[in-house]
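Hi V.,

You were right to ask for the full record rather than a summary. Here it is.
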Amino acid sequence: MRTLFRPGALAALIVLLAGCAGSTGDSVSEETIRHADFWAIGQLQQKFHRATSKKDIDLMMSLFAPNATLTIPGRTAVGKDRIRRFWLTDSDAFRPTNRWISDTPSYKLRVTADGDRGTLHFECHYIDAKGDTVVVYLTADQEVARIDGKWLITDMVVGVAEPTP
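Predicted structure:
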C-alpha cells in the first residue's frame, strides 16, 4: 500500500504544478482582485434592495459617496443630505404604507470594474407583499468608485423599466 501511495501522490503533485506553470503570481493576483471588485460592486445592489425592502435609511445612505448624485425622472439630488431627504420624503419604496419587497432578476445585473472606477446596472422589481404582485419596475444605472477602500455609488440614474422575461 505504501509504494502505491507515493507514486500516486507524486503524480498528483506533478499535475498540480503543471497547471500552475504558465501562470504568474501577478496575473493570478490581478484576476483575484478583479473578481473581488465585481463581488463588492454587486453587493451594492444587494444592500440597495435590502435597504428599500426594510426601509433602512442608514443602510441606503451607506451606499452613497459624500458628493453623490441621484437622478430620477424630472429631478436630481446632489449630496447625501438631499439624497437622504429624497428617500424619506419622495420615494414610494420608503413610504410606511407600502409593504414592498425589492428584488432584481440576477440575469439583469451588469457590473464593470476598471481600477478604482466601475459601473453597476440592475432592475428593481418592487413586489407588494400583501398582493404578491409586481407594482413598480425600475432600472438603476450607477457609476461607482472605490473611495477609502470601499465601493460607493457616485452617480445613480433611475428610469422606468419595461416588464420583460
